[in-house]
What does this fold into?
Amino acid sequence: MVKICCIGAGYVGGPTMAVIALKCPSVVVVVVDISATRIAAWNSDQLPIYEPGLEDVVKQCRGRNLFFSTDVEKHICDADIIFVSVNTPTKTRGLGAGKAADLTYWESAARMIADVSKSDKIVVEKSTVPVKTAEAIEKILTHNSKGINYQILSNPEFLAEGTAIQDLFNPDRVLIGGRETLEGRKAVQALKEVYANWVPEDRIITTNLWSAELSKLAANAFLAQRISSVNAISALCEATGANVSEVAYAVGKDSRIGPKFLNASVGFGGSCFQKDILNLVYICECNGLPEVANYWKQVIKINDYQKSRFVNRVVSSMFNTVSGKKIAVLGFAFKKDTGDTRETPAIDVCKGLLGDKAKISIYDPQVSEDQIQRDLAMNKFDWDHPIHLQPMSPTAVKEVTVTWDAYEATKGAHGVCILTEWDEFRKLDYAKIFQNMQKPAFIFDGRNVVDPEKLREIGFIVYSIGKPLDPWLKDMPAVV
It folds into this structure.
């Protein structure tokens, strides 16, 4: 019987291990974490993360062949295959600050594996890590091996939040990188056999270690690049009267390009895109490739430009001041169908409006008030460190209120900013919202979820990203 242990019970470890347990009834899977509250949540009816379909999978397997535990050492010792799925945040100080990945948690996991192991182990990198991390981990393990044989594999996750369970059930590809030695190939085969329980063989790709590590960074960089490309075009559309939705549709009809990831928006978010591109930039710089580094940096620059452009549109439309004005923010998560707020564009938009002394009322169907206040009080990159290392109790931002109802959030507001594309925002009664707002009433649609013409008929002044500008906005140009 194969025993799997996963270190790290977060967005990657939890769902991935739950699906492995469901699809491989003969494999025992234990997810371990030093956070007792997180493990308690995984063992309760209120899971620590929201992901459609996750709860069903966990309930089917928990207590049968899926377990969540804080006894990290025991389960590492017992396991045949150890997945390491710990945070790899961006460094905030020291060498490579603001770009390089911080491998502190990774290294301590590797040292613990070396300390407690009594039998041969396959150690699998699941977190997104910089190229050559496997080599560093290998050195730590072999220098502390006490005669035990370790094989390091890279098995990056390619999950999209909101569809993670579907992505796990039916992945585009499973990538396994290993050493090109006899033992390395055996280890790759062992992991391949786990996935082969439900993934067709032609979708399981095997490569060398470095290719697997780099493929993950490159895939995220390419996806983010598409978003920044369409967002750059959206600015040009506004300046020329073109419609970015029409342009993106025409471009996406080219089979070489395809239609995915061509929705113009207020910017990309999520835990990976910015972090992975910064990491890629740092690796390029370290390898003497400044031109390549600068090329990828531009993807993030356009994303930051898009967010500040949106804030400037809001402020300039409202007579160049939002001081003391109530602004409703609909949506705080970085995309729909997830409660995840990591690197969400809503943080920068809210901070920009608060900087101009606005009063903000936020509604998001999946994000708690505590999380919103924490995000707005935190420094950049702090979110990716364990909760006990984050600023203790968030100092509540006084100008921010959080409601559990879109109509409550918009009551008495001067403007509404739509920052997440939740389906429910398409179905709101905007006539009712208009009646209860200050006039002139503004809607700034950062996700292109509403029909600007219908809202203009109601009486709103509407700004939609990349769409022909409302006559009102033409008179009040936003300069970044």
Summary: The chain is about 40% helix and 15% strand. The longest strand covers residues 3-7. The first helix runs from residue 13 to 23.
